[in-house]
Amino acid sequence: MRHDSPTHLTMPKLLGALGLTILVSLTLAKDFLGSLPPQATDLSLSVGSIIENATQEGNSSGCQGYNLQTLQEDEAGLTAKLSLVGESCQAFGEDIVNLTVRVTYETATRLHVNIFDTSDEQYTIPQSVVQRPQQIKDAYRQSSDLVFNYESSPFSFWITRKAHPDATPLFDTRLKSMPPTPIPAVDSSDTYKNTTSLNNLSFVFEKQYLQLTSALPKDTNIYGLGEAVASSGFRRNLTSTVQAMWARDVADPVDENAYGSHPIYLEHRFDSATQTSQSHGVFLLSAAGGDILLRTPPSGNISVIQYRMIGGVLDFYFFSGPSPKAVIEQYGELIGMPTWQPIWGFGFHLCRWGYQNIAETREQVTSMRAANIPLEVMWNDIDLYHAVRDFTSDPVSFPGEEMRQFIRDLASSNQHYIPIVDAAIPKQVNASDLYDPYTKGVAKDVFIKNPDGTEYVGQVWPGYTVFPDWFQNNTQDWWTEALRNWSQAGIEFSGIWLDMNEASSFCDGSCGTDADISNTSVPFILPGEPGNFVTDYPECYNSTVSGPSGNITVNGTLTCHLDTAVSVSLNKRGLGAGKQEGVDLNTPQYAIHNGFGRLSNHALATNATHVDGQVELDTHNLWGLMEEKATHLALKSIQPGKRPFLISRSTFPSSGRWTGHWLGDNFSLWAYLRHSISGVLQFQIFQIPFVGADTCGFVGNTDEELCNRWMQLSAFTPFYRNHNIKGAIPQEPYRWDSVADASRKAIAVRYALLPYWYTLFALSSTSGTPPVRALFFEFPDEPELFDVDSQFLVGSDILVTPVLYPNSTTVQGYFPGHGNVTWRDWYTHEAAKPTSGQKLELQAPLSHINVDVRDGSAILLHAEPAYTIEETRQGPYSLLVSLDFAGKAQGNAYIDDGISNPPGPSRTLTFTASQNQLVINGNGSFSIQQRLQDIFILGVTQVASNFKLNGQAHNATYDATVQKLSFSNVNVDLNGDLTMTWA
C-alpha cells in the first residue's frame, strides 16, 4: 500500500463512536523513492531529489529515513511505530532501527510530539527534574487549535492550525518542503564522514546523533534559542545562527553558547496581505548537547531550522499562541510558572568582586546612604570566604560575629544581605584540615564519581574540588544542613547567589584522583593581581578631555570608537556522547559547536557518573537547574514562611520556578549595554522573568557616561544590580556626581512604580505573562517593531527609550499604535506626537531616561519613594490614570505582604474610568494600611468642574496644557470602594 498524500489524523466515525482504537499495518513499496517526481522550486518541493543530492555523494543505500509500520489512535492522539528504511545511515554512529512516535493533544493550545527509541534506552529527563503535566484529563483532539499531519514513507510530519489547514505549516519536516539547494554548511567538518552532506536529510535518529529539519518562511521572525548574546539582537538571524546547547562558563561571548540551555523559540509571522500576524512556539525538551541551526539557502524561498542533538530523544511541544504573550504563557503552563519574588528583591542591589573585608563592605552601605542613593541589598562575592570555600567567612577579613552584627544592622534599616555560593566543594587538604561540608558529604555519599566509582575531582577557586550529585537521595538534606549551619555561624543571609553552576571546573575534564590536593591555587592569575592588572582604559576614554572619566563632555566633539563585539569564528568543535551502551562517552563522531571545543573543557568530564548510572554528558545541562531547586527548597526550610530569593547563572527550562537570573559576566562596553535589553527580553520567553545585567559592566573598566546611562536603563529591568570585577576601577553609583544624580532619579521612578512591578510579577507567577515585553508583544501587527530591541515595555503601559550610544543628548524611538495610541511623558505628562510608524527624536540630556505612559491605563503608584522598599511601602499611594481617545482607562493592582510563602491574604484593586467617572473596586481579605493620597487623570480634553468623591464635593485642579486633572489629598481608604466624578 502506498501513501503519497498527506494524512490528517481523523478517526473513522464508527470506531470513534465506539471508543475503539484502530491498528493499521502499512506495506511500503520498495521503489518509492525512485518513483518520485522531479524536484520543484516552491513549498511543495519533492522528497526524492534532495535525497538524490545526498546519495550522489556516495551514500546510496543509507540515510533514507523511516517508514511508518503501525498506527494506533485514541481520543488523546496516536501512537505510531517506525522502522528504518534500508541499511543504516551511520552518519555519526549506530542508527536506531525501531522508533515510536507518541502524539498527544494535551490542551487546546499545546500539542506534544515525542519521537523516541522503542527500546527506551536513550536518555530522557526525569519528572523529578522537570515536572510536566502527566495525566490528560480531557480529550483535546477535537478542540485543539493545532493539527498533527503525517506522511508514512518516508515518515515526516507537519503541524498546521485547524482554522487554517491550507496555510503554510507552523512546523514542517517533509523533505519536499526543504530548499532546492543544500543548506549552507557551517564549517568544513559539517559532513557525514566527509561523504554525504549533513544538510540534505530531514530526519536521522542514531544513538549519538539526532537530526530533524523543518522549513520556515523566509521572512519569518524567530526569537529565543539561548542562552545567547546574539549579534543580531533579540530577533535571531535566519541566515547564520548556530546555537550550541551546552551550558558554559564564559564571559558573555557573542554568537556562542553561554551559561544556560533553552531550546525553545517563538515564531512571529506577519501576513502583508491582511496586515495581521500570528505567533506560535516550538520547544524541544532535551538536556542533550546539540546545535540548533537557522539557515537560509542562497536560492529558494524558504529558510530552515535544523536540530542536531548528540543524545536523548526528540520530545517536541508546540504552542498555538496566537499572540506572543499567549505563547509564553502556554510555555509556562507546561514547565511551571515563575517563583514568587519577595518584594524587597525589586530594590537596588550592590556588589563587586573585590570588597576585601567587612570594613570595605560596610563602607559601601555608608557611602550609598550619604549620597542618598537607595540601597536595598548588599552582596559579597568570593572575597567573603575563608580559603575560598563555600559556607565559610574569613576569620580575619569577615569574622562571623562581626558579619552577624553587620547583617543585623542592615536588617534594622530594612536592608538585606546576599552572599555567593559556588558549585564546587573543596576537598580537605590533609587530615588536620576539617571542612564539615566535605566530610559530611563523603559520609552521605553525595558527590559525583568517576566511572570506576572513585571520587570525581575537579578544580575551582579553592583548589581541587568535588561536586554535589543532585540525583542522590541524601544530597538535599546535606545541602540544607550546610546552608543552615552557615546562617547560624553568622552569615544570616536573606537570599543566595549561585555561581559557577554549569558546573564549571578549571581542568579539561577530570583532574584525576592523584591530583595534588595540597595545591590550592588556580591555574591562572586572578584579575587585579601582578601579571593581570585590569589596565584597559574605558571604551571611550580620551586623556585630552578633563574629568574623572575622560569622556564626559557629551556635547563636545569627542570621537568614540565603540567595540562592535564581532562574533568569533565558529570552527571550534566540541565532543558529545550518549549514555547507553555501545557509544563513546568521550570522543563521539559529531562535535557540536561548543565555544571551548571539547565539551569537558572548563566543565566536568562527560563520563562523570551520578548515583543511578546517569553520565554527565546527558545531565550536564541540568546541573544548574537541580542546584537551584535544591537551594530553593533549602531556603524554604531555613526561612519558613518566607519567599526564597535566588539569583543563578546556569539555567534550564523550569529554572524560573526556583530562581532569578543575571546575564552573566558581561563587559563594560556600550555594546553590552545594548545586549542587556535583548537578554532581558530573551528570558521572558524562557519563563525566567526576574532577570537583569551587571549594571555598568563586569569585565573591564567602565566610565562615567556609560555607568550613568546603564544605571538609568537597569532601573527598568526586573533585577537591578551593579557588580564589577576584581581589580577594575570602582563603579558604585556614588563615585560620580552625574551617575549619583541619574541613579537617584531613576530609582525614584522605579520605586514609585513598585505596585505596578509587583502586580506584573504576581500575574507572571499565576499566569506566566511576561512582565517585560518587546514592543511587538503588545503591537503584533506593526512590522517596524519586529526587530526593535533598543526600546521595551514594562507591562503593557510603560514605554522605556534609553540612550544606548555615547555622546548623545537625544534618542530616537517608536511610539507604537500607528496614531491610535497616545503616549504621555512620565515626567511632564505631555503627549508625544509621532508620525505613524516612524521614530520620533526625544531630548535625552545626561541623567535623563525617557519613559512614557500608554493611554487607557490606570497605574497605582507609591506617592513618596523612600530609601528602602519597606519605607516606601509604608507611605501613601497615588493613582495615575491616562484616558484613551474614548475617555476610558483600566488597570489593577495586586497587594499583599510581599514576603509570605506561599502567598497569603491579598487584595486586588480594579480601576475603571469612563464617561467622566473613575471607579475603584477591591477584592480580597488583605488589609491595606496605607491610604490613597492623590489621583491624577490625564487626557481630560475639556475643562472639568463639579468634582465629587463618593458623592461629596471635592477640590481639584485642571491643567489644560497637558489635559491633566489633579485630585490632591483625597486620603481614601483602599479597603473600600471609591467613585470619583467630574463634569
UniProtKB/TrEMBL annotation:
It comes from the Eukaryota. This is alpha-glucosidase. Residues 177-288 form the Glycoside hydrolase family 31 N-terminal domain. Belongs to the glycosyl hydrolase 31 family. Residues 339-760 form the Glycoside hydrolase family 31 TIM barrel domain. It catalyses: Hydrolysis of terminal, non-reducing (1->4)-linked alpha-D-glucose residues with release of alpha-D-glucose. Residues 768-859 form the Glycosyl hydrolase family 31 C-terminal domain.
